[in-house]
Amino acid sequence: MKKYSIGIDLGTTNCVVAYTELSDQRPAIELLKLEQVTAPQQTESSTSLPSFLYVPTAEESASGTLTVPGLPDYPTVQGSYARGISAERPDRTIAAAKSWLCHAGVDRHAPILPWGSDADVTKFSPVVACKLLLRQLVDTWQTQFPDAPLSEQLVTLTVPASFDMAARELTREAALAAGLPVDFILLEEPQAAVYHWLEQSGDNWRKVMREGDCLLVCDVGGGTTDFTLVRAEQEQGELVLRRLAVGDHLLVGGDNMDLALAHHVAQKFAAQGTKLNAWQSIALWHSCRRAKESLLASDGKTTETVSVLGRGSKLIGGTVSVELTREEVQSLLVDGFLPIVEVDARPLRGTQSGFQELGLPFESDTAITRHLAAFLARNDIPHDARMLLMLNGGVFKSEALRQRLSAVVTGLRGSDRHETTPQILGMVDDLDFAVARGAAHYGWTKQFGGVRIRGGTARSYYVGVESAGLAIPGMPRPLQAVCVVPFGMEEGSELDVPGREIGLVVGREAKFRFFAAADRKQDAVGTTLRDWDETELVETAPMELTLDVAEAPEEGFVPVRFHSRVSELGVFELYCKSTRDDQQWKLEFNVREEVEAAQT
């Protein structure tokens, strides 16, 4: 009964909705027009909704001048108006809400946004902020397609490839609260970009890629950078695509570039004798974002004026301004974020000192190419494999940035290769919409068949098991890590975890610890690691809960064996099955501080 395949790109900077009818004809993908406030009592329609939320004052809310006709009243104003006023009212503007979903250092259900705003401003949690953005997309769809409720369609929502299980679960929670169907699909953004290219190429993609070719997808979004490696393989006489690897979660992207520009402009202001305060610095960050987008666009301006409000009401004109040129912006961003590096280059690991006023744990090394060098070094790519390159993210509208990254990839692959530069796939004009369009195409392929990227889970997952043995005063027992989800486990599959019985603590509160690894592809399910460190395994959000039991055993634990399942959404579920009776406990990954485990 589903009529449409809908792809939703919940971007750090912009949200986009694409859709196509579910018919056996080649999909004709369209973009949803999104009506939004651009000024008081003024709305316009656009193919994207800026991912900014403005918290109106009580007077603004009561006036009704910041509402979209036909849409419900929201507690915040989403879209163009929020982005436009962000430089003037940063204390009332929420930006990069999606980036906060992967920030384990804060309670993502707590009302903390706008970050650092005054106490009298109503605040929202990162989950609620994302829900409000998605809610407006859902409501807009309903106004244009009243006979096809979005909750009854085939919906694919994209997430960064590097989102861990906690961030994916939080995204799922926000999506369901916004009105997405319970069976919606999560798709990684770099894969969505590839699906868009497949949709545009049709059957010609097999003429571009041949067996053994590797496709490197570099996705630099507003808040994150993702690397994904896909290889073309032969399978039963057919050329197929298989995802080989996904990079670490890197909080470096367009937001960092905006902050770098803000720092550069602040130095210009200082040279003129104007020292900015903390409030003006945040306003400057928003102003520089708009200047960057204008100056990097192929048809953009050659100069841009950056202004911030003056600190005193008596300041003539009320603002201070400086000029930015396209050349200085490109130079700053190209050399600062995409420097030329050697094959053995690695990210610099130092203490974080910049950008912390925004509260997000940005990478201390903003050189994306050093992270790329480390990613390629961890994945053994055959030297004779041909490398293709796909760029995604609005920053690559700049030809200077595209050329630099292509040159760096060429250098990292070795100077003795016959290809001078890797072929870049995709169109620059599609960078803003590729992810949403690819997600809609992916949904269509699930219904009618087509080229699919295979690969399963992008990481191996482990549970922490406390070792048995004599206790030593002041020292915890060593922790073993048991692999319960191997790399590449397909969504919708499940398996028994082999190995000896494990004691499951019941009847009292216990902490259950989970870990992930992107580079341990060799670990089979049941593999037990007894000697490892934090560079190999990254701990995700632990659970602290009490598992009920019909009759608590005297020893305080029940012998169990593990059974793992990865849902169609990519959510990891761990079943602990008693070896004494038919009891079992399901530990579904959840990041709330209070979690109730369902006993079946």
Written account of the structure:
The chain has 600 residues and is of the alpha+beta class. Among the domains are: 4-187, ATPase, nucleotide binding domain (Nucleotidyltransferase, domain 5), CATH 3.30.420; 254-337, ATPase, substrate binding domain, subdomain 4 (Actin, Chain A, domain 4); 460-599, no CATH class. It is built from 13 helices and 32 strands. The radius of gyration is 25 Å and the shape is globular.
Offer a quick outline of the entry.
The protein is an alpha+beta fold and 600 residues long.
What's the CATH superfamily of the domain at 4-187, by name?
ATPase, nucleotide binding domain
Shape: globular
Radius of gyration: 25 Å
The CATH topology of the domain at 4-187 is given as: Nucleotidyltransferase, domain 5
Q: Please bin the fraction of helical residues.
A: 25-40%
Please give the CATH class of the domain at 4-187.
Alpha Beta
Integer average pLDDT: 85
Continuous helix count: 13
Structural class: alpha+beta
Low-confidence stretches: 313-317, 352-358, 590-600
Query: Which range does the strand content fall in?
Result: 25-35%
Calculate the terminal CA-CA distance, rounded to whole Å: 32 Å
Label the CATH architecture of the domain at 4-187. 2-Layer Sandwich
Sheet with most strands: 6 strands, mixed
- How many β strands by DSSP? 32
